[in-house]
Amino acid sequence: MSRNLPLNALRVFEAAARHGSFTRAGDELGMTQTAVSYQVKLLEETLGETLFLRQPRQVVLSEAGERLLPKVAEGLGKLAEAIADLRGASEQKLHIHSTPTFALQWLSRTLGDFQLRHPNVAVRLSTSQDVIDFAKDEADVAIRWGKGDWPGLECHRVMRMNFTPMLSPALSESIGGVKAPADLLKLPIVSARDIWWRTWFSAAGIDDPDLERYPPNELGTQTIDAQIAIASQGVAILNPGHFRAEVAAGQLFQPFELTCNDGRDYWLAYPQSRRGIPKIRAFRDWILTALPQEA
């Protein structure tokens, strides 16, 4: 339709008919009187009809213009209503994309507070390890793991991704307690090929922990590793910020104060062009307030 009918000219026609003046229509639309006249002429040429009778100091609708005006006004009104409804619905739904671990270990336990503070914003949460493309995927904000240097995105660090060994008290007691880093190697190591293990042991002064003797498991998320540790089936290397509740419940503990960080943390990310949208601002302000110490 847009190839055959100049839609912008219809908007100009409606304003000029309502005001009875090309000049006042231009003032409303931010256009010059000449530009308004050009758009009207373009529409008249497209339709093959004279829509205005040009008179001194005013313009008057022709018979054809009188017939056209009600339908154009109705159509523009319906378009404006449809866009307003769409914007309203969009404003009320916040789509969050997150890594599975952050969603399970933090968002799932705290999103209720966001909902209490913003009861008119419905939340949709989706999870995957993939880094989404905001230009292709449907999401308003994302919780990403990385360095926060993604082009075109506004990024806020929300949690340090420190890592350290964690295990159940029962597993520790099975060898008479974990008193030195080398004691961990007496126990099953969960996801032993994870580069975090070698980094942590090196920082602890053990350069050759012989991790190759353990099964090369890749379980996908810290949450699964943590569940194995809680079941006393191994030692997991975890971000302690994720598992405070499990520590408080006596299911896990951190035997050594030493933590490491490989330069990658959790970030809240969203397109820079959308940073002014109220629902995104509300979520950003909430999560940065909720996680000040973590960041």
Task: Briefly say what this structure is.
One of its GO terms (biological process) is DNA-templated transcription. This protein has 295 residues and is of the alpha/beta class.
Give a written overview of the molecule.
One of its GO terms (biological process) is DNA-templated transcription. Belongs to the LysR transcriptional regulatory family. GO terms for molecular function: DNA-binding transcription factor activity; sequence-specific DNA binding. Pfam families: HTH_1, LysR_substrate. The chain is an alpha/beta fold. It has three domains: 84 residues, Arc Repressor Mutant, subunit A, CATH 1.10.10; 97 residues, D-Maltodextrin-Binding Protein, domain 2 (3-Layer(aba) Sandwich), CATH 3.40.190.10; 85 residues, D-Maltodextrin-Binding Protein, domain 2 (3-Layer(aba) Sandwich), CATH 3.40.190. It is built from ten helices and nine strands. The strands form three sheets. The chain has a five-stranded mixed β-sheet. Strands 1-2 form a two-stranded antiparallel ribbon. The chain has a two-stranded antiparallel ribbon with strand order 7-8. α1 crosses α3. The longest helix has 29 residues.
* Strands ordered across the widest β-sheet: 4-3-5-9-6
Order of helices and strands: HHHEEHEHEEEEHHHEHEH
Q: How many strands, which pairing sense, and closed or not: the largest β-sheet?
A: 5 strands, mixed
Count of discrete domains: 3
CATH architecture of the largest domain: 3-Layer(aba) Sandwich
What separation lies between the terminal Cα atoms? 52 Å
Q: Identify low-pLDDT runs.
A: none
Kindly state the number of beta strands: 9
Radius of gyration: 31 Å
InterPro entries: LysR-type_TF_proteobact-type, LysR_HTH_N, LysR_subst-bd, WH-like_DNA-bd_sf, WH_DNA-bd_sf
Family: Belongs to the LysR transcriptional regulatory family.
GO biological process, one term: DNA-templated transcription
Protein name: LysR family glycine cleavage system transcriptional activator
